[in-house]
Specification:
Chain lengths: ~675, ~575
């Protein structure tokens, strides 16, 4: 590896490739800062990552194994300096439990499953000592999965130390591009229903072997979030032109669990109009209330008297039926009954403002999973010269005794690299540097199921399901059901993410909801039972539970760190990513108060290349794009790819092909022009 | 430094763009000139096709180029094999698709597409429907696409039920769409026609021909109608401010077509004149009116009541002098409306100076024609729904207006007071349309007064102090002898006023009348009171001179009385007036 070739001076060194870190990297690089972006993991995006099925299995394995203990190696530092060691352990993931309910095909037993019983194989937690339960294999030498890398790391290959690793595809792996094209072809097949596809013979059983075999079709998010159409993430993607690196689909419906049934929540005008469950009077009341919320600030007389009361009390006075109150509180405002009126109104307003920008619901979901988003920002960073190294960490910081500032870091290879700022993901901070370790937890479950929670005309629905406490005192659970056209699961299956703020272990928190909404087969491969209403309840084929540490509420002052070391907290439990984006912007403002945060990336034709004067002649439209003449400049976008995320929603597949084409253009020699 | 990006300045970019534009313009102009030259020389070849294609793809809105292109295609069609023609037109279609991407609302492109599709030897209508659906999903109000789609549907014979489902889909995704609702209104009568009703007994069926297909073509069977009411209610409860649903609702509630008939025949011995009222305005010269007196067809000249009308619901004719003047004779008249195969008889008995024969306006249909005669229970439940909505939205004008219409359909007199109060609210919440509501309210008040008059079986029409802004239904007042319109807001007595052929006394004090056009050849008018109006010129009074029996005229508190010599001028203008008040 060429790690020792790294330049020894950077403006900003960033450790961790989660969303906040990646946005900071892109923002710094964009305004000309020299950025080194490293991550000790073998994949991008940290706890924001998305994995193929097999990748996820490896991830689970990682958290099962105990890593090397934290050795406090004596670092060589100069006089007037001291070393501040970082943690090499990741303790953010706990209580990992896996259950497989899909049947085995006898000849495929070597998939690592011993017995065919209900809990085919679970990973029971070793509850010896808290904080030490899960260890991450730092710098694992055996790289099993590489799917999570994005096109942008071709730059990393060119300049980073990992150049070799990426080029040799592991055996038997389909090259990512070929795989993607195949995915599209599949998608089109579904779009035009050929009789064979649309009417599969009496519900083909999906076996565990099949899931493993088709594992590449999965992109399973560690954190489950959606993008508010007018949230800070979407705004940033558009403003910075990073949206061109990804594609999005609209969440197609909002569902809720009520009176033992899953129902659709009417939230847009078209939904309300089409709703069969509401009476016409309810329709009017709902529309009237929502219209009021849209500009509630203009009508203070309506809610002033309730400023000290809860939102729920306010709803009670609004002549809304019980039906409507449920929809508004749980599925539109998505708040707890006790939040204050103004907060509830604001949440409703945000939801409504996002509605209709790209479709019938306020949310977008990135194709291939949420893990794409941090990678897109990394790509942007790389385009503007940022250097990337995966499986590379920072052992310790070098502090200047006098100023107390971090002046350099020593990387995992022992190289000393100077920097003016150091940005680090929370998970790398050792216990010693935390004054207050009172962090919250997120409970997560990932299910692979065999049918949708609410079957409809289209099999390709992306649903957000809000599940109010199933019993008094149990948590509010948020569920996202993804269909195969989101490129996150294999055709014939649905990927279901459950999230809530933890009160116990993930399984304790979420299993009650899972058992109510899904059928958990007693024996593997058992046909799903009939639901109470006679409708078929989806069967769980495979389930994963884990807890993730949520440090989003931890204040910067809780860390005992130099002033030029900036901490990025882990993903929060909220539905949107606003916290991570606001944090990134705040850190960027501290780093570079004078600079603009993520200004739009220029169009390729506006870039002046070295040795080239201003292009006074102006290229005619028939002439070759100058970008093609200079591929060594790193990423150059073709001029056509300027659509905003807006277009991406509609013309997803076409756009993806273009993205692939951009990556392919890369190695074209200059002589071809 | 590695990777640092240098950017062109704004000035540089502008300059580049300007140059690029210039270059583009030069190419464009050159190509255009070349094309025009070729067309002048009558060259219809592939090169011209290519050139026009280049021009049109950057600007698809040049009609001349499309025309030229059609000339070329028509020519090539004659010299090519059918296979090649098919290919040629298919290429044309895909070229057009790219033009539509440039401007999805280009008149030229859509028209040309229609033309090409019609000439294509083996058209692929499914593909065309798909294209329309795609276009409409991007902009569901693109009327070019709607037009083209109608043509495609017609040519390919898409089943009506499928089209209805198509409107379901469009309305489901966005119900603020007149095109979809309107399309629905054309499809429903085809798919769910109203079952032919047995003719109602109150009509003299013998003079009405078998119902023409048109008269029922707009109606929908009741079962489907109820479903439609439900659908449209969902829309206007969801968004009561959206007009499209309300308009559709108005259509559903229907506009019953009045039977075409002669509603009244009036004959007067003294003037030896016959006046005939029809259910709709007729053209006096061409609708084949014929008068039969005692079995003898008469040669009479029909005319409308006022020279400004070619069409009029009231026509009059003079009988030859002496035919009916003898009061001791009894006469039987029959007026034939040959165009509509209908007629009406009228007997003039001995000793009577006038006679008439007519249908009473109290026959329900007359003023409920705004809404069809649906079952009362249906209308009643619709009224309930609307009242429910009004409770939630007391300011909603569409709801108020619809309620008024429903009330009128159900019981115009019974709901009169509520109707008036709703009109008041309407004028307050929608002052921009105050005049419209005023006129509409006047119309309803006149209708109510006519009904009351009919029930009382009198020939006196009195409607004072009711804020009337306009006069209508004057054809219904053919037999009225006394009319009182005092203390309203009338600006004029319109030409239609001349239909009051029996009018003897007119009171219209305290209005703002400045024009008396309608007091034209009223044979029996004797007494006119126009106190406190806006009559200001002598010429405004000119029409009065045509009323032979006018003896009393009250013009007090009109500007015209301030004119010098007014008295003598009037004496000259109106010699018959003996009682003039100024």
């Amino acid at each position: 590896m060429a790690a020792d070739n790294l330049p020894s001076v950077f403006d900003v060194i960033i450790l961790g490739t989660g969303l906040s870190e990646s946005v900071i990297a892109a923002a710094c690089s964009r305004v000309g800062q020299r950025v080194l972006h490293v991550d000790r993991r073998s994949y991008y995006a940290g706890n924001w990552a998305s994995f193929t099925f097999n990748g996820l299995l490896s991830w689970i394995e990682e958290y099962k194994q105990a890593g090397p203990s934290d050795e406090a190696a004596q670092e060589k530092v100069e006089e007037g300096e001291e070393a501040l060691a970082l943690s090499s352990l990741d303790t953010s993931i706990t209580n990992v439990e896996v259950f497989c309910y899909a049947s085995e095909e006898p000849e495929e037993v070597e998939e690592g499953v011993k017995d065919g019983a209900a809990a085919a194989w679970s990973v029971p937690q070793t509850p010896d000592s808290e904080g030490e339960v899960e260890r991450c294999l730092l710098e694992s030498s055996s790289v099993e999965e590489e799917e999570a890398v994005l096109a942008g790391d071709e730059v990393a290959q060119a300049s980073g130390p990992d150049a070799g690793a990426e080029e040799t595809q592991p055996e038997g792996e389909v090259p990512p591009q070929a795989y993607e094209t195949q995915g599209e072809w599949q998608d089109e097949q579904q779009a035009s229903p050929s009789p064979a596809e649309s009417q599969p013979e009496p519900k083909k059983q999906i076996t565990y072997t099949k899931i493993v075999k088709e594992g590449r079709r999965f992109n399973i998010d560690l954190v489950s979030k959606l993008m508010y159409s007018r949230g800070s993430l979407v705004d940033l993607l558009i403003k910075s032109n990073v949206s061109r690196y990804a594609e999005f689909k609209n969440v197609t419906r909002i569902l809720t669990y009520r009176n033992g049934k899953v129902e659709q929540v009417p939230c847009s005008r078209a939904d309300v109009f089409g709703s069969k469950q509401l009476t016409v009077v309810e329709k009017r009341m709902l529309m009237k209330f929502l219209t009021f919320c849209l500009d509630f600030e203009q009508h203070p007389e309506e809610y002033q008297d309730f400023s000290v009361h809860s939102f729920w009390d306010f709803l009670l006075t609004k002549k809304l039926t019980e039906n409507l109150r449920h929809f508004i509180l749980h599925s539109i405002a998505m708040v707890t009954p006790d939040v204050c009126t103004v907060e509830g109104l604001r949440a409703t307003q945000h939801f409504l403002r996002c509605l209709g920008r790209y479709g019938n619901t306020p949310f977008l979901f990135p194709l291939y999973g949420l893990g794409e988003i941090p990678q897109c920002f990394c790509r942007m960073c790389a385009v503007f010269g940022g250097i990337y190294c995966l499986r590379q960490s920072v052992r310790c910081l070098v502090l200047d005794k006098e100023s107390g500032k971090c002046k350099a870091v020593i990387d995992s290879n022992g190289q000393r690299i100077s920097c003016s700022h150091f940005v680090v993901e929370d998970g790398y901070i050792g216990l010693d540097q935390r004054k207050n370790v009172d962090s919250r937890q997120i409970s997560r479950a990932v299910l692979i199921t065999d049918r949708s929670i609410l079957p409809s005309d289209s099999e390709q629905q992306i649903s957000l399901v809000t599940v109010p406490p199933v019993e008094p005192g149990s948590p509010v659970v948020r569920m996202v059901e993804l269909c195969s056209s989101t490129m996150t699961c294999m055709p014939g299956t649905y990927l279901v993410h459950l999230t809530c703020s933890s009160s116990g272990s993930a399984r304790e928190d979420l299993a009650p909801v899972v058992s109510r909404l899904f059928c958990i087969p007693v024996s593997p491969g058992e046909e799903s039972k009939e639901g109470e209403e006679g409708s078929e309840v989806p069967s769980v084929l495979w389930a994963l539970y884990f807890n993730m540490r949520d440090t989003s509420a931890v204040d910067r002052s809780s860390y005992d760190l130099p002033s030029n070391v900036h901490v990025c907290t882990s993903p929060d439990a909220a539905l949107g990513s606003d916290h991570a984006i606001k944090l990134a912007e705040a850190v960027f403002r501290q780093l570079l108060p004078e600079e603009e945060f993520c200004p739009p990336a220029p169009n390729p034709e506006d870039i002046i290349y070295d040795g080239e004067g201003p292009q006074g002649e102006g290229p005619g439209f028939e002439e070759a794009d100058p970008a093609e003449a200079l591929p060594s400049q790193g990423e150059v976008e073709s001029a056509e790819r300027q659509e905003e995320a807006e277009d991406a929603g509609e013309t997803g597949d076409v756009a993806k092909q273009e993205t692939v084409a951009v990556a392919e253009n890369e190695p074209r020699p200059a002589s071809e022009e | 430094m590695h990777g640092r990006v240098k950017l062109k300045s704004t000035a540089q970019q502008e300059e580049e763009k300007r140059k690029e534009r210039e270059k583009k313009l030069k190419i464009y102009v050159t190509a255009r000139d070349a094309v025009f030259a070729k067309r002048k020389n009558g060259m219809l070849d592939d090169e011209a096709l290519l050139l026009t294609q280049q021009l049109l793809s950057s600007n698809p809105d040049v009609a001349t180029l499309w025309n030229y292109r059609r000339e070329i295609l028509l020519h090539l069609e004659t010299i090519r094999e059918e296979v090649d023609v098919q290919k040629m037109y298919e290429d044309e279609l895909s070229f057009l698709e790219s033009c539509l991407k440039v401007n999805p609302k280009s008149y030229g492109s859509w028209h040309h597409r229609g033309w090409v599709s019609a000439r294509l030897p083996r058209p692929d209508w499914t593909r065309e429907l798909g294209l329309c659906d795609r276009c409409l999903s991007l902009d569901d109000r693109n009327f070019h696409c709607w037009d083209y789609r109608r043509m495609v549907v017609k040519m390919s014979g898409v089943p009506v039920d499928q089209e209805l489902q198509f409107t379901d889909r469009l309305i489901g995704s966005n119900f603020s769409n007149y095109s979809s609702w309107h399309y629905r209104s054309t499809l429903l009568p085809l798919l769910h026609p109203e079952s032919p009703e047995p003719p109602s007994p109150c009509h003299q069926t013998h003079h009405s021909p078998p119902t023409s297909p048109q008269s029922h073509s707009h109606r929908v069977c009741e079962e489907q109608l109820l479903k439609e009411y439900e659908l449209v209610q969902n829309a206007f409860f969801t968004d009561p401010n959206d007009q499209s649903a309300w308009f559709y609702y108005r259509w559903l509630l229907g506009r019953a077509e009045r039977e075409e008939m002669i509603s009244c025949v009036f004959v007067s011995r003294e003037e030896e004149r016959v006046a005939v009222a029809f259910s709709r305005p007729v053209n006096v010269s061409s609708s084949g009116l014929m008068l039969v007196l005692d079995g003898q067809p008469q040669r009479v000249e029909w005319r409308s009541v006022h020279p400004s009308f070619k069409h009029s619901p009231v026509c009059i004719c003079e009988l030859p002098p002496g035919t009916i003047s003898d009061i001791t004779n009894e006469h039987n008249l029959t007026v034939h409306w040959t165009e509509k195969h209908t007629h009406r008889d009228c007997a003039l008995y001995t000793g009577r100076s006038v006679s008439w024969c007519r249908d009473s306006a109290t026959d329900q249909e007359l003023f409920r024609s705004e809404l069809s005669v649906e079952k009362t229970s249906v209308l009643q439940s619709e009224l309930q729904s609307c009242n429910q909505l009004l409770e939630l939205e007391p300011q909603n004008k569409w709801c108020l207006l619809t309620i008024i219409l429903l009330m009128r359909a159900l019981d115009p007199l019974g709901y009169e007071r509520e109707t008036l109060s709703h009109f008041q609210t309407l004028k307050e919440v929608d002052p921009m349309r105050g005049a419209y509501y005023g006129d509409l309210c006047s119309k309803f008040m006149i209708e109510n007064t006519i009904l009351k008059m009919e029930y009382a079986e009198v020939r006196v029409f009195s409607l004072s102090d009711k804020n009337l802004t306009t006069l209508c239904h004057l054809d219904q007042l053919l037999l009225v002898t006394h009319i009182n319109l005092s203390s309203n807001q009338l600006l004029r007595l319109p030409p239609q006023f001349a239909m009051l052929q029996c009018l003897e006394v007119l009171e219209a004090d305290n209005n703002a009348i400045e024009n008396l056009e309608g007091l034209y050849h009223l044979p029996k008018l004797e007494d006119v009171s126009l106190k406190n109006n806006k009559l200001s010129r002598l010429s405004d009074l000119q029409p009065l001179a045509s009323c032979p029996k006018l003896t009393r005229l009250d013009l007090r508190r009109n500007p015209v009385t301030q004119l010098v010599n007014i008295e003598s001028e009037l004496a000259e203008l109106l010699p018959s007036v003996t009682d003039l008040l100024l």
